[in-house]
Specification:
There is one protein chain. This protein is of the alpha+beta class and about 190 residues long. The protein folds into 2 domains: about 10-70, no CATH class; about 75-180, no CATH class. The protein has 4 helices and 10 strands; from the N terminus they run ααααββββββββββ. It has helices at about 10-20, 25-30, 30-45, 55-70, and strands at about 75-80, 80-85, 100-110, 110-120, 125-135, 140-145, 150, 155-160, 170-175, 175-180. The strands form 2 sheets. Strands 1-10-9-6-7 form a 5-stranded mixed beta sheet, with no helix packed on it. The radius of gyration is 22 Å and the shape is elongated. The relative contact order is 0.12. It binds zinc ion. Zinc ion binds near residues 30 and 32.
Protein backbone atom coordinates (compact mmCIF):
# COMPACT_ATOMS: atom_id res chain seq x y z
CA UNK A 1 0.00 0.00 0.00
CA UNK A 2 1.39 3.38 -1.00
CA UNK A 3 0.92 5.79 1.84
CA UNK A 4 2.83 8.62 0.21
CA UNK A 5 5.03 11.01 2.13
CA UNK A 6 4.73 11.26 5.88
CA UNK A 7 3.57 14.67 7.08
CA UNK A 8 6.27 16.87 8.58
CA UNK A 9 6.45 17.59 12.30
CA UNK A 10 5.11 21.04 11.62
CA UNK A 11 2.13 19.66 9.74
CA UNK A 12 1.38 17.18 12.50
CA UNK A 13 1.57 19.89 15.20
CA UNK A 14 -0.50 22.25 13.08
CA UNK A 15 -3.20 19.65 12.62
CA UNK A 16 -3.13 18.61 16.29
CA UNK A 17 -3.50 22.24 17.37
CA UNK A 18 -6.16 23.25 14.89
CA UNK A 19 -8.15 20.04 14.90
CA UNK A 20 -7.90 20.04 11.12
CA UNK A 21 -8.55 16.70 9.43
CA UNK A 22 -6.46 17.33 6.31
CA UNK A 23 -4.07 14.59 7.40
CA UNK A 24 -6.86 12.09 7.96
CA UNK A 25 -6.31 10.14 4.71
CA UNK A 26 -2.65 9.60 5.57
CA UNK A 27 -3.32 8.87 9.22
CA UNK A 28 -5.89 6.26 8.29
CA UNK A 29 -3.17 4.30 6.52
CA UNK A 30 -0.04 5.06 8.52
CA UNK A 31 0.10 3.67 12.02
CA UNK A 32 3.29 5.54 12.94
CA UNK A 33 1.87 8.92 12.09
CA UNK A 34 -1.47 8.04 13.64
CA UNK A 35 0.11 7.27 16.99
CA UNK A 36 2.27 10.38 16.86
CA UNK A 37 -0.72 12.50 15.93
CA UNK A 38 -2.79 11.09 18.77
CA UNK A 39 0.02 11.78 21.25
CA UNK A 40 0.40 15.33 19.97
CA UNK A 41 -3.33 15.91 20.20
CA UNK A 42 -3.35 14.72 23.78
CA UNK A 43 -0.36 16.92 24.57
CA UNK A 44 -2.41 19.89 23.43
CA UNK A 45 -5.05 18.96 25.95
CA UNK A 46 -2.98 17.81 28.88
CA UNK A 47 0.21 19.75 28.24
CA UNK A 48 2.04 17.00 30.03
CA UNK A 49 3.36 13.53 29.54
CA UNK A 50 0.53 11.62 31.15
CA UNK A 51 0.13 8.74 28.80
CA UNK A 52 1.09 5.63 30.71
CA UNK A 53 -0.42 3.34 28.09
CA UNK A 54 1.76 4.63 25.25
CA UNK A 55 5.20 3.15 24.67
CA UNK A 56 7.91 5.24 26.34
CA UNK A 57 9.82 5.75 23.11
CA UNK A 58 6.76 7.31 21.51
CA UNK A 59 6.11 9.56 24.47
CA UNK A 60 9.71 10.73 24.31
CA UNK A 61 9.42 11.38 20.61
CA UNK A 62 6.20 13.36 20.99
CA UNK A 63 7.68 15.31 23.91
CA UNK A 64 10.75 16.17 21.86
CA UNK A 65 8.57 17.41 19.03
CA UNK A 66 6.45 19.55 21.33
CA UNK A 67 9.55 20.97 23.00
CA UNK A 68 11.11 21.71 19.63
CA UNK A 69 7.98 23.53 18.56
CA UNK A 70 7.84 25.53 21.79
CA UNK A 71 11.49 26.51 21.51
CA UNK A 72 10.90 27.68 17.99
CA UNK A 73 7.82 29.70 18.85
CA UNK A 74 7.92 32.99 20.65
CA UNK A 75 8.18 32.25 24.32
CA UNK A 76 7.27 35.39 26.19
CA UNK A 77 9.10 35.96 29.42
CA UNK A 78 8.03 38.55 31.93
CA UNK A 79 9.71 39.45 35.17
CA UNK A 80 7.27 39.79 38.01
CA UNK A 81 7.82 42.69 40.37
CA UNK A 82 6.92 42.72 44.03
CA UNK A 83 4.40 45.48 44.57
CA UNK A 84 3.22 44.52 48.01
CA UNK A 85 4.96 42.77 50.86
CA UNK A 86 3.36 42.56 54.26
CA UNK A 87 6.78 42.02 55.80
CA UNK A 88 8.13 45.30 54.60
CA UNK A 89 5.03 47.35 55.25
CA UNK A 90 5.67 50.29 57.54
CA UNK A 91 5.33 49.22 61.17
CA UNK A 92 2.87 52.05 61.72
CA UNK A 93 0.65 50.56 59.07
CA UNK A 94 0.77 47.07 60.42
CA UNK A 95 -2.27 45.83 62.12
CA UNK A 96 -1.55 45.10 65.72
CA UNK A 97 -1.57 41.39 66.31
CA UNK A 98 -0.63 40.52 62.74
CA UNK A 99 0.70 37.01 62.71
CA UNK A 100 4.45 37.25 62.29
CA UNK A 101 4.57 33.87 60.66
CA UNK A 102 2.39 34.94 57.79
CA UNK A 103 3.49 36.87 54.75
CA UNK A 104 1.43 38.28 51.95
CA UNK A 105 2.96 39.19 48.63
CA UNK A 106 1.64 40.69 45.47
CA UNK A 107 3.59 40.28 42.26
CA UNK A 108 2.79 42.18 39.09
CA UNK A 109 3.82 41.54 35.50
CA UNK A 110 2.09 43.88 33.10
CA UNK A 111 -1.62 43.37 33.78
CA UNK A 112 -1.23 40.00 35.46
CA UNK A 113 -1.12 39.77 39.23
CA UNK A 114 -0.15 36.97 41.55
CA UNK A 115 -1.33 37.07 45.13
CA UNK A 116 0.59 34.82 47.47
CA UNK A 117 0.06 34.03 51.09
CA UNK A 118 2.75 32.11 52.90
CA UNK A 119 2.23 30.72 56.35
CA UNK A 120 5.01 29.33 58.49
CA UNK A 121 3.65 26.41 60.43
CA UNK A 122 5.42 24.18 62.94
CA UNK A 123 5.96 21.49 60.31
CA UNK A 124 6.87 23.69 57.36
CA UNK A 125 5.38 26.31 55.08
CA UNK A 126 2.01 26.40 53.46
CA UNK A 127 1.41 28.51 50.37
CA UNK A 128 -1.76 29.69 48.71
CA UNK A 129 -1.51 31.67 45.50
CA UNK A 130 -3.87 32.94 42.88
CA UNK A 131 -3.45 34.57 39.50
CA UNK A 132 -5.71 37.58 39.15
CA UNK A 133 -6.00 40.57 36.87
CA UNK A 134 -6.13 40.41 33.12
CA UNK A 135 -6.33 36.64 32.88
CA UNK A 136 -8.73 34.82 30.63
CA UNK A 137 -8.47 31.44 32.30
CA UNK A 138 -6.71 31.29 35.64
CA UNK A 139 -6.94 27.50 35.56
CA UNK A 140 -4.70 27.22 32.52
CA UNK A 141 -1.70 28.27 34.60
CA UNK A 142 0.84 26.19 36.37
CA UNK A 143 3.27 27.31 38.98
CA UNK A 144 6.81 26.11 39.62
CA UNK A 145 8.34 26.61 43.03
CA UNK A 146 11.48 24.93 44.35
CA UNK A 147 11.20 21.88 42.15
CA UNK A 148 7.46 21.47 42.58
CA UNK A 149 4.91 21.98 39.84
CA UNK A 150 1.57 23.10 41.20
CA UNK A 151 -1.72 23.15 39.32
CA UNK A 152 -4.66 25.30 40.36
CA UNK A 153 -7.60 23.70 42.08
CA UNK A 154 -11.11 24.09 40.72
CA UNK A 155 -11.38 27.59 42.18
CA UNK A 156 -8.08 28.66 40.67
CA UNK A 157 -5.97 28.45 43.84
CA UNK A 158 -2.47 27.03 43.90
CA UNK A 159 -1.95 25.32 47.23
CA UNK A 160 1.26 23.63 48.24
CA UNK A 161 3.57 22.89 51.12
CA UNK A 162 7.31 22.92 51.49
CA UNK A 163 9.94 22.78 54.17
CA UNK A 164 11.44 26.04 52.96
CA UNK A 165 9.95 28.99 51.09
CA UNK A 166 10.90 29.31 47.41
CA UNK A 167 13.46 31.81 46.16
CA UNK A 168 12.07 31.65 42.66
CA UNK A 169 8.51 31.22 41.47
CA UNK A 170 7.70 30.71 37.81
CA UNK A 171 4.18 30.99 36.47
CA UNK A 172 3.45 29.49 33.12
CA UNK A 173 0.59 29.41 30.68
CA UNK A 174 0.95 28.46 27.04
CA UNK A 175 4.02 30.29 25.75
CA UNK A 176 3.98 32.92 28.50
CA UNK A 177 6.25 32.71 31.52
CA UNK A 178 6.37 35.02 34.49
CA UNK A 179 9.39 34.74 36.72
CA UNK A 180 9.67 36.01 40.24
CA UNK A 181 13.27 35.78 41.29
CA UNK A 182 15.40 36.37 44.33
CA UNK A 183 12.62 36.26 46.83
CA UNK A 184 14.18 36.87 50.20
CA UNK A 185 12.61 35.31 53.24
CA UNK A 186 14.73 37.06 55.79
CA UNK A 187 12.44 39.10 57.88
CA UNK A 188 13.56 42.62 58.67
CA UNK A 189 12.90 43.09 62.31
CA UNK A 190 12.70 46.50 63.91
ZN1 LIG B 1 3.10 8.48 8.05
Amino acid sequence: MDIGNHPTREQLIEAAQSGSDTLAPHLAQCEDCRLLFSLLTRFQVAGEVELPSAPAAWINRAAAIVEGATAGSKLRRLVGKLTFDSWSAMPALQVRGTATDERRLRVEAESILLDLRAEHQPNGWQFIARVVGDVSDSRSWKLHAAGQTVYPDERGYFIWNDQKPPQTIVLETGSLQIEVEQLSWTRHTT
